C-alpha cells in the first residue's frame, strides 16, 4: 500500500494492522512522540472541516512532525496551478500529502504526479480515514470484527461507501438503510461485494429498518451533505422515519451508536441517545486522529 485513496488499496491484514497500530498509538502516545521527527505533511483543503483538519494537524504534532495547512487562499487546485504541478512541487518539500477535495479525480491525478504518499481525507466518493476510524472504534468494543453487524442509516454517500469497503475487507456485516432514491453508488457497492466474497463479509442495502433487528451498531450521518441546497423541510419529510433515537434502539436491540458528525440534534439523531450510554460518537471522533496517525506512519515509513 503506497497511498490511501479509496480504501481498496488495503488487504485484510493491512487493515487489521492499521487498527492494531491505532490502538497502540492511543494507548502509548509517548512511544511514538518522535516517530515523524523531521517529517512534514501538507494538508490540502478544498472543503471546510473541523475534525479532519484538527485531527491531522494535532496528530502530526503528536508524532513529532510538522503539518502545513493549505486552503484555497493560495489559489484553487486546477485553477491557479494544475493539480499536476501542486503534486510535483509539494513532493519536493513534504513527506506526505493529505487532501480533502470535491472530486475524486483530483486525488487520482495528484497520486499520478506525486512522489510521496497521498491520503484521501474526504472526496465526493470516499472517506477512507473515517471508515477506518469507525472500525477502530468498533474494534475497541467487539473482539471479532467478522461477527459484527453494522447498520448505516441515512443518505447513501461517501461515508457509506467507505463503511462498505472497510467492512468488506474486514469481514463484517454492513447494511445501509436508505430512503428510496438515496441508495449508495451501485458500482462502488459492487466492488465491495466482490471483496466480501473473498472475506465472508455481507454487504446489503434496504429501506426497511426492521431488517436491522439484532444488529450491534447503528451509524448516522447528516441528512444534507455539505453544499446540498435541498430545502430542509423536503428532506425532513423523507428522512425523519430514519432518525436515530431511543425508539430505534429499543425496536432493533442495537447496543452502540456511531455518527461521523457534524450531527444535527433533533434531526438525524436525538440528543438523548447522542449523549447517552450507547453512544461511541466522541470516542469515534478522537479515533480519527489515532487511525490517521497509523496510516501516515505506515505510508511514510514504508
TrEMBL record:
Keywords: Transferase
Residues covered by the Aspartate/ornithine carbamoyltransferase Asp/Orn-binding domain: 147-298
GO MF annotation terms: ornithine carbamoyltransferase activity
Family matches, as Pfam families: OTCace, OTCace_N
TM segment ranges: none
Domain Aspartate/ornithine carbamoyltransferase carbamoyl-P binding as annotated: residue spans: 3-139
Top-rank lineage group of the source organism: Bacteria
Catalytic activity, EC: 2.1.3.3
Family membership noted in the UniProt record: Belongs to the aspartate/ornithine carbamoyltransferase superfamily.
Protein name (database record): Ornithine carbamoyltransferase
Organism: Psychromonas arctica
Taxon lineage: Bacteria, Pseudomonadati, Pseudomonadota, Gammaproteobacteria, Alteromonadales
